[in-house]
Hints:
The chain starts with 13 loop residues before the first helix and ends with a helix. A two-stranded antiparallel ribbon has the order 1-2. It has five helices and two strands; from the N terminus they run H-H-H-E-E-H-H. The chain has two domains: about 1-80, Orthogonal Bundle (Arc Repressor Mutant, subunit A), CATH 1.10.10.10; about 80-125. Strand 1 (about 65-70) and strand 2 form a beta hairpin. It is mainly α. The radius of gyration is 17 Å and the shape is globular. The model has no long low-confidence stretch (mean pLDDT about 90). Helix 1 crosses helix 3 (about 50-65), helix 1 crosses helix 4 (about 85-105) and helix 2 (about 40-45) packs across helix 3. About 60% of the residues lie in helices and about 5% in strands.
Amino acid sequence: xxxxxxxQRDPTPIYAQLERALRAAIATGRxxxxxxxxxxxxxxxxxxxxxxxxxxxxxxxxxxGVLETRRGVGTFIAARTGLRQEEALRRTELxxxxxxxxxxxxxxxxxxxxxxxxxxxRRIEGA
Length: 127
């Protein structure tokens, strides 16, 4: 099973979906510093995408300091460089999620006020 998922129906490019999914998994703690990621080939097979796409995302995230590759060992989530950077990552991911949520609401003909009671109900129920 893949550590992240992508949606083939989403018009967002696979590359962007994969990068966003990895950053989200890190920001939410599903992937923690030191966790090993699947090999490029394995993740490509799991997600049914081109291995070059996965390699490109891994390389970009490594340049950004999010991942680190240990020759002969694998690719890992890099150690966090500080609380500020971690909080900034989390805030960025939250903003992306809210933007996507609002776009989906609008697409389906809802407004924020339509969703707020449901969100509050679930918050109270602990869902």
